[in-house]
Amino acid sequence: MIRSALERQKKKTAELRQKAIDYNILKREVETNRRIYELLLQRSKEMDVEASVRSTSIRPIDRASIPLSPYKPRKMLNLLLSLIVGLMGGVFLAFFLEYLDNTIKTPDEVEKLLRLPVLGVVPSITLKKRKKEEKADGLLIDFYAVNSPKSPAAEAFRMVRTSLMLAAAGQPPKTVLVTSPQVGGGKTLIALNLAAAYAQMESRVLLVDCDLRRARLHRVLNVKANPGLSNYLAGRVDLGQIVHQVDGILGDGVTIDFISAGTVPPNPVELLNSKSFVHLLELLRERYDHIVMDSPPLVGFADALVLSRLVDGTILVLRNQQTPKPAAKYARDRLFQVGGNILGVVVNDVRVERGAYYYGKYSGYYYYYSKYYSYGSSPELPGKS
User: Fold this and answer.
1) Topology of 104-124+142-352 in CATH?
2) Which residues cross the membrane (predicted)?
3) Is 162 helix (H, G, I), strand (E, B) or coil?
4) 24, 134, 168, 203: which sits with the fewest CB atoms below 10 Å from its CB?
């Protein structure tokens, strides 16, 4: 009995100790919460005081109103920025495309790039006029130097002729080779009109089609292709059988002799590099004052290189905005390597209407040339003499 009572007392004592511990914990929490409450209460009173003080110093300055225009988007600003960005982008794109374009663009550029004189600048032909003057194969058939004597194109060919006559003091070149770096440069057109320009001086002129690979001059002059140069060099015909007189399409009193290319041979370079061709040139020099020779392009073929060593001089034809600069330099270097005499460059298909800034002195020249002829052809005013 006593032990059980003792055990009960011990349990009660332990419970009382635990309750005392819990009481102390709760008491500390109460004290803490009371302090927090007092602190918050004090802070609340301070804020009320501050709010009452501020409210007395605040007053409306301007009342809110509905805006008459939207804040965003700013149309004028956006339009101005778009215009500026568009202009800058266009200018940058133009310079970028100009940087990527490696073709010949101006005659002045030709002189700086190749260090060769420009003998003349042939203006471009408008599309409408070009369609009238093209055959089925796309070859221009008009002799501007004769049929349009007052045109800028005719004056360009006369300028080339004059430049050649003054190329060597007292001894102008008698045999002239006309070639270009690539196909489509306009060398055939230049050769045709240069021969016509020579013929206007009442000179004995011979035009020779030395393009034994792709002969086309006989179509323009309405002459039979065979027999021609290749047949003569092969020993099949005489010289008298291959020389044709052309006078019907060149105007009154203007005649030239013409030698066609003849049958397409399997070995054009060998024929042009033969002793027979050298002997033929000697005979022709004695008979004619001027000999103009058309040849294949320089890039890809050796014909023009062989011919350049046999003639007095070579004209290099470059087509504006078509002939790449590397091709032009390659053609010049190859001609110099074989000992050819480059008389100068003719820049073909130049659009002079673009202005003097783009084409330099040549555009201004053709402008004043056309103005001069338009002035000379205008009717006289009444009472003026």
Assistant:
1) Rossmann fold (3.40.50)
2) 77-97
3) helix
4) 24
Domain borders along the chain are 104-124+142-352
CA-nearest of 217, 198, 212 to 291 is 198
Alpha-carbon dihedral angle through residues 327, 116, 164, 356, given to the nearest 10 degrees = 90
- The number of angstroms, rounded, from the C-alpha of 104 to the middle of its chain's C-alpha atoms is 7
Contact status, residue 284 vs residue 69, Cβ threshold 8 Å: no
Give me the phi and psi of 348, to 5 degrees please.
Answer: -105, 155
Q: Within a 13 Å sphere around the CA of 50, how many CA atoms are in the beta-carbon half? A: 6
Residue 137 pLDDT exceeds 50: no
pLDDT tens column, 18-46? 888 888 898 888 899 989 998 998 888 88
Tokens of 347: 């820049």
Q: Report the alpha-carbon distance of residue 295 to residue 188 in Å, rounded.
A: 8
Return the amino acid letter for 86: G
pLDDT digits (tens, 9 = 90+) for 48-105: 877 776 555 566 777 777 777 776 777 788 888 888 988 888 888 877 766 667 888 8
Task: Provide the pairing of β-strand 256-259 with 243-246.
Answer: antiparallel
The enclosing H or E element of 13 equals helix 2-55
